[in-house]
Specification:
The protein is α+β, with helices and mostly antiparallel strands and about 220 residues long. The protein has helices at about 10-15, 95-100, 175-180, 190-205; strands at about 5, 20-25, 30-35, 40-45, 55-60, 80, 100-115, 115-140, 145-155, 165-170, 205-210. The protein is built from four helices and eleven strands; from the N terminus they run E-H-E-E-E-E-E-H-E-E-E-E-H-H-E.
Length: about 220
């Protein structure tokens, strides 16, 4: 799973990395301690009225709320979605079909029990990661404004990370970004499975090290302990 991550890259860098055409409003700045329900940048491909395609960088709530949920957000956690059955689960299946996104990250955190204490580890590469994600537009009641919400897909862990956790996010290689985001494609479980297969070499290349307990929010949080 992925219960916390870091994104050190500012908006202008993300624009270059992901070849962004349109930048949305209220994008959050760099953060080294992103937690569920925080606002996070996501990358989506959309179609205009004339059928023209645009790549957008938008701000989303990290914890997807399906559009059919009314009233309060669900009590169960929705910041991660299991890839194995994403296309058949009520919370995710509509998003798999037509609302797929990328969630940029510098790296993510997992907590490992060492001598009876949960110790954070930072998992990353030197390049910006793009986790496979899903999104949904939601509002509690019809008079509320729409809110963009998102989740990160997870997969069974690669052997290289098995000592850290039994699952890891789905980090897509650059050559798969357009396939995953394609607004013309109706997403299926086969597409999700293909994304996981494409992510395996990226996940296997990730490195990890121990960091100090996550307090506050600054670049020191990803320094080696």
């Amino acid at each position: 799973m992925c219960g916390g991550y870091a994104l050190a890259e500012p908006t202008d860098v993300l624009e270059d990395v992901f070849n962004i055409d349109l930048v949305g409003e209220n994008l959050p700045g760099p953060s080294w301690n992103i937690r569920p329900t925080n606002q996070v940048p996501v990358v989506v491909d959309t179609l205009g009225a004339a059928g023209d395609q645009h790549r957008r960088l938008e701000s989303a709530r990290w914890s997807l709320i399906p559009s059919w949920v009314k009233g309060e957000p669900p009590k169960f956690s929705t910041f991660n979605a299991r890839s194995e059955d994403a296309a058949s689960k009520a919370s995710w299946k509509d998003a798999v079909k037509s609302k797929r996104c990328l969630v940029p990250a510098s790296g993510y955190f997992e907590w490992v029990v060492e001598d009876g204490v949960k110790v954070p580890h930072y998992i990353h590469t030197e390049e910006t990661l793009a986790f496979a994600g899903l999104y949904s537009w939601w509002r509690a009641v019809e008079t509320d404004p729409w809110m963009l919400t998102a989740t990160i897909l997870t997969m069974p862990t690669v052997p290289e990370l098995a000592a850290i956790h039994d699952r890891n996010p789905v980090p897509l290689p650059k050559q798969f970004w357009s396939t995953w985001l394609d607004p013309h494609a109706v997403g299926t479980q086969d597409l999700v499975d293909a994304a996981v297969a494409a992510a395996v070499p990226v996940a296997a290349f990730l490195t990890q090290y121990r960091v100090n307990p996550l307090r506050g929010n600054g670049p020191e949080l990803i320094s080696r302990a």
